[in-house]
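Notebook p. 47: complex prediction with flavin-adenine dinucleotide.
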Amino acid sequence: MSEILVLAELTPTGVRKATLELLTLARRLGEPAALVCGEATDEVVAALGEFGATKVYAVPAPEVAQFLSLPKAEAVLAVTARSEPAAVLVTSGPEGKDVAARVAVRLDSGLVTDAVDVVVDGGVVTTTQSVVAGAFHVRSQVVRGTPVITVMPNAVTAEAAPVQPRVEAVEVEFSERAKGAAVTSRTPKASSARPDLADASVIVAGGRGIGSEAGLGVIEALADALGGAVGVTRAVSDLHWAPHDLQIGQTGKTVAPALYVAAGVSGAIQHRAGMQSSKTIVAVNKDPKAPIFAIADFGVVGDLHTVLPALVDEVGKRRG
Ligand SMILES: Cc1cc2nc3c(=O)[nH]c(=O)nc-3n(C[C@H](O)[C@H](O)[C@H](O)COP(=O)(O)OP(=O)(O)OC[C@H]3O[C@@H](n4cnc5c(N)ncnc54)[C@H](O)[C@@H]3O)c2cc1C
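Predicted complex, structure tokens below:
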């Protein structure tokens, strides 16, 4: 069976959930192998093996942390030259897309970004993308070189399939070009107990309908009741009712959770561009003609300040 190379992402506590999703997807396509740029500790290797990585390529080079994305791209290229995988899978996101694009150019291969599904069809790796505010699904096949594919977080549910991975250390000689831009300092973001927006399987998003900065409280309360993340529209971040890094949409983050609750959100095309791939969309809006209802699976016409607290109560009762 051909190898499918997954670029693993590490967190301070282990392996990012999106990487485990990629390994789950890779099992459908061939034999999953993970590339760890950084320290492949026993815990990291065990976590990757738990989700089916039969091989772990370890590139423990300090250059990966000291410089921007080029060393990661060169590490992927070194491993692809060695193992000739049938496809390379990377998590969609600013860094993932940067690395994937550089790898595809250097391999002279086709690149597909933001896939929401990847299957083998007629022996060929075939991707699905959700485009034009979710109005179309596009199926594509890379016809040149090794397919390099970035996959949206939450596109699949991570499922365990434990194996004992073989660890191979890979020495990479980084080019001078890869060391052209160094990271000079890192400031960790003040963390909240909520999941990261990019990885969250539940997102509760508030629009201008929240009415004020204090109105964000009802959004946060429902997000906490559901164990989800908080998102906002650009109207809300432009009004400084919430930080810009919570903005979802064309000029914000692109998300695809299992459940997206949009409250007081009109559903402008630029907002939809960032959340259209969500699996189940619930809209709460007092205007029955709000465009968000056109893409919602469930809708409540009503005032969010009444509907959301009632939902929080109900979730609380059911969780008991
Ligand atoms: C180049 C460009 C890029 C953009 N990028 C983004 C982007 O990345 N993300 C983004 O979100 N937008 C983006 N926008 C802005 C976008 O066009 C919309 O203006 C914005 O999404 C509207 O935000 P909203 O839905 O919160 O506000 P509004 O459109 O004002 O809608 C508020 C909604 O709340 C409802 N409402 C009001 N009170 C209540 C209540 N008490 N209970 C329930 N419902 C209530 C109203 O009926 C209405 O439907 C961009 C625009 C441009 C031009």
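Notes: The mean pLDDT is 94. The chain has two domains: 3-179, 202-319.
Next step: compare against the earlier run before touching the bench.
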